[in-house]
TrEMBL record:
This is Uncharacterized protein.
Length: 149
């Protein structure tokens, strides 16, 4: 009986530690400083309705077959500063990069979001870096077409 209790005790400790050491690879970006808004894009808005400019957002893999035009992201809301999960246009994200995520709340939200949609989280560093490379190319083409470069 004593051994079972000791084993159970250590199992709990190991599980607790592993929760804190958990990490995931993820595609990360920042909310753009400003973007065109309104009819014909005549107005300029700073950040988005829900995210301040520069806010770090953790991006999930493509889900809808739209060429990653819209992205499900996790980031700190501009009002409450709590983490939120929502879908935003990828054009409102810049500074794409591959990062390892350690924040337990972000990891929990990534896992919850992918469980809901039956999607895997990023499988490897290479997969994330491939997305980063294609998003940077897409961003450069878009900026060239818009005449912003």
């Amino acid at each position: 009986m004593f051994l079972n209790s000791a084993n159970d005790h250590w199992r709990l400790i190991i599980n607790d530690i592993s929760e804190h050491l958990d990490s995931l690879r993820c595609l990360v970006g920042n909310i753009v400083e400003q973007h065109p808004y309104g009819e014909g894009g005549l107005e300029t808005r700073r950040g988005t309705k829900h995210f301040s400019p520069g806010t770090k957002v953790y991006c999930l893999p493509a889900q809808w077959g739209d060429g990653y035009e819209r992205v499900k992201v996790i980031g700190r809301h501009r009002g409450s500063k709590d983490f939120v999960t929502m879908v935003i246009p990828s054009a409102h994200i810049t500074n794409w990069r591959a990062k390892v995520v350690y924040n337990p709340e972000v990891i929990r939200r990534l896992r919850t979001a992918t469980d809901e949609d039956w999607l895997p989280i990023w499988r490897s560093k290479e997969e994330v870096e491939k997305y980063v490379a294609s998003l940077i190319q897409w961003e450069q083409r878009r900026d060239t077409q818009d005449g912003t470069t």
